[in-house]
Design brief:
mainly alpha; 6 helices; 112 residues; 2 domains
């Protein structure tokens, strides 16, 4: 997927969110919009095909390491910085949230 296609999807996603939040849609239309939003999120996870916009290998490595839960041994402050960094590199918020939940499970003693 190239950058122009991604931008088109993001505009569609924004419009769907706006319509749902303003309650311009019926219940059936809201359910359809929610399904479409999920489809768009999945499509946006696809890699960008433009060579100039590729993520550098080092950044992919950090995201992959985060997905592999290698940062679960970090302190809370360091893990927060790592979450911010991988989100900034393009990791979807849902995946960042899953990593955070796993960190909490692994570090219950730091929470108490």
């Amino acid at each position: 997927m190239n950058i122009k296609e991604r931008l088109t999807l993001k505009v569609e996603l924004f419009e769907l969110k706006r319509k749902v939040s303003n309650q311009e849609l019926s219940i059936q239309e809201r359910m359809t919009a929610k399904s479409r939003r999920l489809e768009i999120y999945k499509l946006l996870k696809a890699p960008i095909t433009s060579e100039t916009a590729q993520v550098e290998p080092q950044e992919k490595s950090l995201i992959q390491r985060f997905k592999d839960r290698e940062f679960n041994i970090q302190s809370a402050q360091d893990f927060r910085k790592t979450m911010t960094k991988v989100y900034g590199l393009g990791l979807h918020l849902d995946e960042v949230a899953l990593g955070m939940v796993d960190w909490f499970k692994s570090n219950q003693e730091q929470i108490a």
